[in-house]
Amino acid sequence: MSPRKHLAARHPGGRIKTPARDPELLAPAELHRLLDAARCGLRDATWGTMLGRLLLSGKITATEASAGRRWAALVENYATACQAPRPPQSASLDKMGGTPVDPDSVAGRKQAKIHERDTARWLEGRNALKNAGRDAEHAVAQCIQDYVPTGFAELQALRAGLSALAACFAAKRKAPARCS
Q1: Rounded alpha-carbon distances, angstroms, from residue 25 to 28, 43, 44, 98
Q2: Number of domains observed in the structure of the chain
Q3: Could you tell me if residue 140 is inside a domain?
Q4: What SS3 string covers the chain?
Q5: Residue 113 sits in the same domain as residue 73
């Protein structure tokens, strides 16, 4: 009696059929070249981020990557609106000047409206992430900071969080209803 064969689709001769390669996925060497080019500034900077790398490898969809990029911009704008401390940077030897905009001026009121809008959008997105679950919220926050998702469960949580954000942003575009 012959040993038990693995359950798989087979050719008439008995060999296991290899699945057809997805034409959207890149070869590993091409992927490596794209990432290096993005780091050097030759390609779009998106490919140098964790979201871009996950998109290139086919682990997330373009919609999820777009929602992640939009969420990263919202988080940055929210931090600016809250006057959060900036990340450390190298010392600038050039003369830096300027003062913040006066809140009572026309430009100041415009800036305040922008900050108010960004804060409201951030709160709606955060509520959508909270509804997606704690794991999804944590995975999206980690990925935005360029940490690699470790394992299948974290990748699934990341995809759930990004899908929740994409649905929130799509609902916001269609109607002014809340995302929560």
Answers
A1: 9, 18, 18, 48
A2: 2
A3: yes
A4: CCCCCCCCCECCCCCECCCCCCCCCCCHHHHHHHHHHHHHCCCCHHHHCHHHHHHHCCCCCHHHHHHHHHHHHHHHHHHHHCCCCCCCCCCCCCCCCCCCCCCCCHHHHHHHHHHHHHHHHHHHHHHHHHHHCHHHHHHHHHHHCCCCCCHHHHHHHHHHHHHHHHHHHHHHHHCCCCCC
A5: yes
Residue 71 and residue 142 share a domain: yes
Asked whether 31 and 57 are in contact (CB, 8 A), the reply is yes
Any domain includes 161: yes
Is residue 72 domain-shared with residue 137, that is, in the same domain? yes
Rounded Cα–Cα distance for residues 9 and 12 (Å): 10
Binned average pLDDT, 10 residues per bin, the chain of 180 residues:
72 81 69 74 70 83 91 88 78 67 82 88 91 92 83 90 91 59
Does any domain span residue 94?
A: no
Q: Which domain holds residue 43?
A: 25-58
- My answer on whether 65 and 53 are in the same domain is no
Distance CA 125, CA 74 (A): 9
